[in-house]
Amino acid sequence: MAMTNRSLVTVDDLSNGEIEALFSLADEMSDSMNEQFGLCHGKIMASLFFEPSTRTRLSFETAMHRLGGSVISAVDIGATSLAKGESIADMARVVGSYADIIVIRHPWEGAAKVVADYAGVPVINAGDGSHEHPTQTLCDLYTIKKERQTIKGLKIALWGDLKYGRTTHSLTYALARLGATILFRPGPGLELPEHVLRKLTTEYGGELIRYEALDQAIKGGLFPLDAIYITPSSPHQLAMMPDVSLQVELKTGVDALYVTRLQTERLSAKAKKQGLKEQYPVVDKKLLRKKEFKRTLVMHPLPRIDELAYEVDADPRSMYFKQAARGVPIRMALIAFLLGAKEISIPRESESFIRKTDYPVYRRDFGVSCPNRDRCVSTQETETKYIKPEFKIVSNQPLTLRCVYCEHEVHPRYIASSEWHDGTLDSKKYHSADSHWTRKIKTENLIVFDSESEAEAHGFKPSHYVRVRH
Ligand code: NCD
Hints:
Layout: H1 16-31, E1 44-49, H2 55-66, E2 70-74, H3 88-98, E3 101-106, H4 111-119, E4 123-128, H5 134-148, E5 155-160, H6 166-177, E6 181-186, H7 194-203, E7 207-210, H8 216-221, E8 227-230, H9 242-251, E9 256-259, H10 269-272, H11 285-288, E10 297-299, H12 320-325, H13 327-338, E11 361-363, E12 390-396, E13 399-403, E14 409-410, E15 414-417, E16 429-432, H14 437-440, E17 446-449, H15 452-457, E18 461-462
Parallel strand pairs: 1-2, 1-3, 3-4, 5-6, 5-9, 9-10, 16-18
Antiparallel strand pairs: 6-8, 7-8, 11-12, 12-13, 13-14, 15-16, 15-17
The chain binds N-carbamoyl-L-aspartate (NCD).
């Protein structure tokens, strides 16, 4: 199966079968590295890295050179017209007219989606703020698969900055889809964001067991787990007997420990002062002596700072330099695949495409905007000239809208219908979002507001259902 003009913005843009097929292609690439030179001859890859990068950029560029293609690059936002106030959409259109494929890293969440929407050529997200980093996930999964032959049923612990670390977000989605059990060990205040947890439980059918729900014996016996997520692949009734099931689950130990650094560059000034660095959990020889880590693969997307001791490097369980090295064949496979230079065959048993939940879309240029101010591309001054806030309505109770760019959620407080005019102006009313009107108003007519003053500014009057809750 070939694919042309498809982008990789989120890890969900690839089905499980395609991920498997890319792994086989990466195997083929590494076995015959020097024979791949003609595959992308004459093709040009634009490498746009507007945040620091060593591994991702250099492995992408190496991959394209190994495939016989050429690379054009911009690595400093200050040296591009973005610094003059050019929008990402305009830049994408222009670069898309020069290159056959674009790789972009940008500090704004959702920036890669905007590039993919406007470039007209395949776009690969090499990291968009704290949102996602799908190609790092491919390297991570490929490493686990190589070392353990499967991902299904493994127990993978994610360690460190689960809030701002984009690698962990893409990785949790993929692990859940592939049937792993995920354990979370965040640094203080660095838990997985609610919108990521919601996706895991509502879209991948997983169960979330919180630390507080666990038996004291489990809390004490293990390294300090904060939350545990079990995928439906687990055969037991975890929701009914979390403690017993967990004891059974963990007896065999943790298969991989995925360590991440504190994303200092994404912390607010206030958070920087909270001593997060001092309280950040460290993985060292002593920790790895615990029996649950006997056979654990120690992984890290790198760069490491202080969270992973150098003494672990000589340990055969350490995998991080292998992960980085495998970035070249994986990215060669991906580029060749997206450029349609190589057909892939999807293994029969994993042929099914992933289910994309078809939520209704909410798109209006007033009423509510993404709450992820300053970080989401849709809230940036240069981009609001052409981007309208756009959300997926992921739940009616409570009313929950998910930004299509950064996936942060908003719970609007007031709602109205655009069909107010069927009677008189008197029927132009707004209601509380937790009243029964949320179910009554048709999605295509729904208008949401964050405040009463905003609803009133648009000519709506409060209904009986604004203050009386139903
Ligand atoms: C990661 C990133 O950029 O998100 N690095 C990488 O691509 N290997 C991890 C990090 O910076 O902490």
